[in-house]
Specification:
Helix content is 5%, strand content 45%. With 295 residues, the protein is mainly beta. It has one domain: Beta-galactosidase, Chain A, domain 5. The strands form 3 sheets. A 9-stranded antiparallel beta sheet has the order 7-8-9-10-22-19-18-13-16, with no helix packed on it. Strands 6, 11, 12, 14, 15, 17, 20 and 21 form an 8-stranded antiparallel beta sheet that branches. β7 and β8 form a beta hairpin. 39% of the residues are buried. The structure holds 6-O-phosphono-beta-D-tagatofuranose. It is an enzyme of class 5 (isomerase).
Length: 295
Amino acid sequence: MPVEIRTDRVVLKHPKGPSAEILLYGATVISWKSASHTSNEPVERLFVSAKAALDGSKPVRGGIPVVFPCFGAPTHPDHSKLPQHGFARNNVWTYAATVLDNEAGVSVRLTLEPNATIQEQYAHPFHLAYVVTLAEHELSTDLHVKNNALSTTPPIEFQALFHNYIRAPSSDVRVSPLLGLSYYDKTEATEEARATPKKEVRQAVDVLRFTDSVYEDAPGRYDILWGSGGIEIVTKNLKDVVVWNPQAEAGAKIGDMEEGGWEKYICVEPGHVRGYVKLEAGQTWIGQQVLKVKV
Ligand code: TA6
């Protein structure tokens, strides 16, 4: 059964063995298992903390949380009542349809409409659709944002990001190409320092120390490589990318982070998070990423 609809999640199964699981809460991909090009045995490609809540009590610590309409602590007046990273990752989405189911792959669409809780925090009428597609060596996620306001209303402004927890040894993993990009270092102690752009001097960036970097106007394609593995991310319409790993000191303070969890992942998060997407009433914005197994 390529698509299995359960009460709290949708399970995708590819005819050649790969699989993916999407929690309806947050439309959070909590598992992606895919074989490498040298072995047929599917392995887990994402990190989910053993302490992660999967019962809808809080956003999932791991997998691919969907960040919308704000990244980080809200700064836009429209978002002032929202929690960190917005409402997409902490609301229950609806399975809408299976849009592909053949030898090439399996794809489903989930949707989110304003509910009472969201409407208390966010005034704009919207429709979100999230399409997750599992191919033999790839997983893609597309976020479609429709501004459902009347044509006479001003455009909405939002941010969006895929908060990927890529399973990899943090002691060895590198992400490239980032050389020469401007980035904002959120590990700096003062707001002034965090707001001061730096220039990346490394082609490949490690996360050997606490790293929380927001790269602006990035290339849109990233290689995440380590000794025995690699994932490539190819994006459309996502101009920025965030690289995050808290390492031990900051990681140990994260309540739902398993002991030593920070050693098992790198977050490489494509998005539109510097500035805002401006979307006219009646228009739709689409941001896409494709995660490809390189090794
Ligand atoms: O994307 C990096 C980041 O913004 C970090 O600053 C850290 O806060 C991380 O997201 C996790 O955020 P969360 O709200 O899931 O604890």
